[in-house]
Amino acid sequence: MDAFDRLCGTASGPIGIAVSGGSDSLALLVLAHDWAARAGRDLMAFTVDHRLRPEAADEARHVAGICAHLGIGHQTLTWETPVSKQALARRARHGLMAAALRARGGARLLLGHTSDDQCETFLMRARQGSTWYGLAGMQPRAVSPVWPEGQGVMIARPVLSHSRSELRTCLTSRGILWVDDPSNRNLAYERVRVRAQLDGHADLKARILACQARLQDVRRLEERLIGRWMADYVAWDGEGRARLNLSGLPRERLERALGLMLQIVGGKETPPRRDAVQQLAGRLSGNEAFQGATLGGVLIYRKQGDVVLSAEPGIAGTAADPALARDRFDAMRALYVGDT
């Protein structure tokens, strides 16, 4: 229960839980129920019907029944414009749950990612050429991955240190049945293929998790330093322009901080490509005069030794609105320095 206290203890309003009906999310629901009963907190479960499978409505009703038995509020959310693409479904799912949670006064959404998911993520990112920062895997706490829909919502992963088999044992001991989504067996998806490769290799999983634990420690330190830089060396004007003092930052941290700021000012959900940010960082750090640039929907220029970022009209995302950008900046800074 320590993970729930650590990740949810200071959050206002009801604690939201994403529950699909699979074993991971149902076990999260049960464990959250035990914690909330002890801590005196209110819970609200959300199930998203993507309208991509005819069984989804029955699965949502199955979750609703379990919630009713546990005395937990439940709401089924429906994606009204379904598209059979995982990335779009994920974005829609997070947007629907964030909006529903905010409407109830909540600010913390729990997800049921496990240590098995961490191992799969490690191998997938390694294949894609990720740096140590990405190989550290999913974080226990993060800003909502959709913006501006996720404004004001933090996500948390209290069972990230538990394996899927442990969670299923928990459900079996309580007589709770879970749903197996057929997409979890579809080898067309990379995660499913990686999962099959890891199956039966407990020793490999243990080595990956040990490596990730060390990388997580380094990543927390790196983000703490970036958060302090954001607090001390980034200034905003009244029109949404951010003024950055990049002097003294080690090159790798400069690239990471610059990418984050481009993401925020440009109103995008992810930073620009790493190679493009590296090239820009090189130009800003070099001896040649910097004549200005554009990247990720952001205008970049120098002013009195600092670097100024402003949203590029017609290119920046909807979240480039000055108030939204500043709110996102504050959320990221607070997360990085541990003030959440």
Q: How is this structure best described in words?
A:
One of its GO terms (molecular function) is ATP binding. This is tRNA(Ile)-lysidine synthetase. It catalyses: cytidine(34) in tRNA(Ile2) + L-lysine + ATP = lysidine(34) in tRNA(Ile2) + AMP + diphosphate + H(+). The chain has 340 residues and is α/β, with parallel strands linked by helices. The chain is globular and about 70 Å long. Helices cover 50% and strands 14% of the residues. The chain folds into 2 domains: 2-199, Rossmann fold, CATH 3.40.50; 224-337, no CATH class. A hairpin with a 2-residue loop joins strand 10 and strand 11. The protein contains 12 helices and 11 strands. Helix 2 packs across helix 7 and helix 10 packs across helix 11. The mean pLDDT is 94. The chain has a 6-stranded mixed sheet with strand order 3-2-1-4-6-5, with helices on both faces. Strands 7-8-11-10-9 form a 5-stranded antiparallel sheet. The protein has helices spanning 2-8, 23-39, 56-70, 86-103, 115-127, 132-135, 164-173, 190-198, 202-233, 251-266, 274-285, 322-337, and strands at residues 15-18, 43-49, 73-78, 108-110, 141-143, 154-156, 234-236, 242-244, 293-295, 298-303, 306-311.
